[in-house]
Amino acid sequence: MSVSLQGMIERAARLNPEGECLVFQGEVRSWSQVQQRISAIAAGLLGMSLSEGDRVAILSLNCANYYEALFAVPWAGCSVVPLNSRWALPENEYALGDSGAKVVFFDDAFTEQVEALKASVASLEHAVYFGNGQCPSWATDVSQLIDANAPIAASSRGGDEMAGIFYTGGTTGFPKGVMQSHRAIWASAVSALPAFGMDRTTRYLHAAPMFHMADLAGSMAATLCCSTHVIQQSFDPEKLLELTEANKITHMLIVPAMVKMVLGHSNAASTDVSALQTIMYGASPMPAATLEQCMTLWPNVKLAQAYGQTELAPIATILSAEDHVLGSELLKSAGQPTAISDIRCVREDGSDCEQGEPGEILVRGPHAMMGYWNKPDQTEKALRDGWVYTGDAGYFNESGHLFIVDRVKDMVITGGENVFTTEVENVVMTHEAVQDVAVIGIPSEEWGEAVHAIVILKPDMKATEADIKNHCRERIAGYKLPKSVSFQTEPLPLSGAGKVLKTELRKPYWEEQGRQVS
């Protein structure tokens, strides 16, 4: 059988049957128990008249049942759709409707939202509850699926067939569903293992959201190693420190904003982190001061940075622990390509850049996406001749380290989350008093970047910063909300092609920090 997500579970249960697989809120499940539960859940899904390749969504906080659902879906021969637990109802409604998901798994935190989604999304036929409370009358309890169904053999789907659809921000104002194959997810995890340094004794902490591709990278690597998955329901720095000490955590993957909050907690210095071997981080650059603080406070803990995107399942480069040397220029880089990543930096005409010359970053390899679900035009632009056009600009130095000099111009990376400014602008523009708006990323000590809206009001109309924020709060996820709003009367600066010159708008904010804006 070709590589597959369900095959990873079969392998782990065969190699380490009685080893701890899942640890969550005092409950421990072995690899053999998890395999049995996954196969029974898969049987239950097939009893819901699902066909091969049908989409099954998950909307939940981190939990042991989330991990099992993530693998039960491909075990049944279907494709998983992890929904963003931070999205508002309309955003998840769009993703469910776009993917045509027929079933959604959910926990207690999303009972109300899933009830509304079940009523509004035509394709959604079933809801499976896996929380700790009372299962709603309109849903099926996951325990019923396990009790009522004998385990079944895993589906033979795998390889280059679609494993799942992973939604990411869209420059058109709508999320894009990235189609990833079994092989792509498997290959990305395999390529990261040397830098992550995991093995059978690893105890991996799920601190980042499990719907996120960043956590998926660590999760799949740990699964390949038959390691133990310790799960934190939602990120909290104090709880993370408690779990790290109590469970002798060896590895975790968290974004720089999380690292900063953990280091800033009063218990950071007193927590026993003697078992902690490696912190993997990514999604946004780590401030030099935070790196120095981490390396000074926990000198025996290795750091590894991963760069990539959902379209690459998700890892393209890794800055190794050996390159994490205080004062080194390499700390400003995104590291070197993984063994499966072929990377070029190209000019606008498609020719390769010289060493040190910035250009658009292109990546190809077995981890490249299949394309965007239901978006052939955007797929054609982003995926050409096997190369993923990342939209990021960067250059290679003489040692082959990749330096990122700019992000997609319409994107703000705040706390490790991608926010496409067009999406926020579309929401702000629906306010009756707004005539025009531009959304940009500005420096933030806490989040790396913060979403900032520059608003022009209609003549004779008024609105305050609070009015704009409250208007957005009902329509988009909290992390996408403008953290600040400024008002001006002069028109927004335009290029010769009529596009807003966001570079000019960003300059006053970033140049105050002595950073160039391109």
What class, by secondary structure content?
A: alpha/beta
Would you identify the regions where 5 or more consecutive residues have pLDDT less than 50? 514-518
CA-to-CA gap between the ends? 48 Å
Q: What would you call the quaternary organization?
A: single chain
Number of helices: 15
Supply Rg: 23 Å
Proportion of β residues?
25-35%
Query: If strands are numbered along the chain, what order do they take across the biggest sheet?
Result: 2-1-11-10-12-13-14-15-16
Number of strands: 27
Q: Main sheet, how many strands, which sense, barrel?
A: 9 strands, mixed
Any idea what the shape is?
globular
Helix content: 25-40%
Structural account:
The protein has 518 residues and is an alpha/beta fold. It contains 15 helices and 27 strands. The strands form 6 sheets. It has a 9-stranded mixed sheet. Strands 4-3-5-6-7 form a 5-stranded parallel sheet, sandwiched between helices. Helix 1 (5-15) packs antiparallel against helix 2 (31-46), helix 4 packs across helix 5 and helix 7 (182-196) packs across helix 8. The protein is globular, with a radius of gyration of 23 Å. The chain starts with a helix and ends in a 7-residue tail after the last helix. The model is unreliable at 514-518 (pLDDT under 50).
What can be said about this structure in brief?
The protein is 30% helix and 26% strand. By secondary structure, the protein is α/β, with parallel strands linked by helices.
